[in-house]
Q: What sequence folds into this?
């Protein structure tokens, strides 16, 4: 889950929707860097917390988005069963304004014209 009033807000429960979200993440050039990772619990009930920074650099070299956040997740045997991202959602909304003009188009499905 990624709360907020912006185009990145999400509460997905299936792989297809999550895959589309990650595809957009890669398409716009978001780069994420973990700063600290905390893991606790046994493999069948693991808690993971990742403090990260993320950013996007335009082709001109200008950093057009930069944020810090925390991903809190629950896992069982390596599979995430719950996850929430906490970031400065105003910065994410501001990034939406940039993307309204500069977002790369979504690629056409394979085999389409």
A:
């Amino acid at each position: 889950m990624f709360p907020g009033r912006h185009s990145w807000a999400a509460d997905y429960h299936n792989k297809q929707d999550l895959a589309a979200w990650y595809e957009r993440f890669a398409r716009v050039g978001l780069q994420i860097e973990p700063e600290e990772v905390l893991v606790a619990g046994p493999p069948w009930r693991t808690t993971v917390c990742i403090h990260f920074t993320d950013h996007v650099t335009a082709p001109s070299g200008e950093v057009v988005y930069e944020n810090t956040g925390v991903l809190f997740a629950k896992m069982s045997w390596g599979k995430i069963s719950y996850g929430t991202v906490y970031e400065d959602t105003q910065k994410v909304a501001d990034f939406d304004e940039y993307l309204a003009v500069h977002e790369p188009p979504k690629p056409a499905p394979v085999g389409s014209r």
